């Protein structure tokens, strides 16, 4: 069986509250042997860490999504630092900038994003970055982050400046079910990602790929993401699955 790694999902989301065991079962049947559940805020990071501790080959992150940046307090970074010390917590984030929604002022988002990047450098853990309609500021943040900070532009859909800075810094880029949509506009950039820095994800329960578009997403569907990426790269799906799984293991520092 081909093995897949869902490098970014949200298993603590309420969309999974009634059938999480079935979700894990379907993932295993599809060959999804590893996954990382991504935190959106401090409370979610605690739930994610508990979930990861109870599951083999499931890990978690700790961070505050830009949508929740306005709720951060002066001790948020210190609390994140404590969570990042847990064995099953393998990355900082989800962090980044999102100027599409007015959930927090750009200056507030940027300050917290910079703090996450600094945490990544301090802890040696990679940073999971959300970027939407903030290309210039994402690029500026990456250009000015501490040397050696590792990270991934997750659910990448474009942004030439952020992409350029990420490539220059040796970062990874991850693609979601959007890569299966006819409207996907970052095909040329996808083809520029070095093969050892490419990952796939579901971002579930959001952004279900074709043929599940419009329904709840789940880790089992990362198979379709890999198929879409393989088609765009004109590579065998098995090769893309193998390479992206190995890359995710390297990125997160897991088996």
Topology (elements, then pairings):
Blueprint (H helix, E strand, L loop, with lengths): L3 E6 L10 H11 L1 E6 L4 H12 L4 E5 L13 H8 L5 E10 L7 H18 L3 E6 L2 H10 L6 E3 L6 H9 L3 E4 L11 H6 L5 E3 L21 H12 L3 H16 L3
Parallel strand pairs: 1-2, 2-3, 3-4, 4-5, 5-6, 6-7, 7-8
Helix pairs in contact: 2-3, 5-6, 8-9
What are the defining features of this structure?
alpha/beta, TIM Barrel, 8-stranded parallel beta sheet, 8 strands
Brief description of this entry?
By secondary structure, the chain is α/β, with parallel strands linked by helices.
Can you walk me through this structure?
- By secondary structure, the chain is an alpha/beta fold.
- It has one domain (4-252): Metal-dependent hydrolases (TIM Barrel).
- The chain contains nine helices and eight strands.
- It has helices spanning 20-30, 42-53, 76-83, 106-123, 135-144, 160-168, 187-192, 222-233, 237-252, and strands at residues 4-9, 32-37, 58-62, 89-98, 127-132, 151-153, 172-175, 198-200.
- The chain has an eight-stranded parallel β-sheet with strand order 1-2-3-4-5-6-7-8.
- The longest helix has 18 residues, at 106-123.
- It is globular.
- The relative contact order is 0.16.
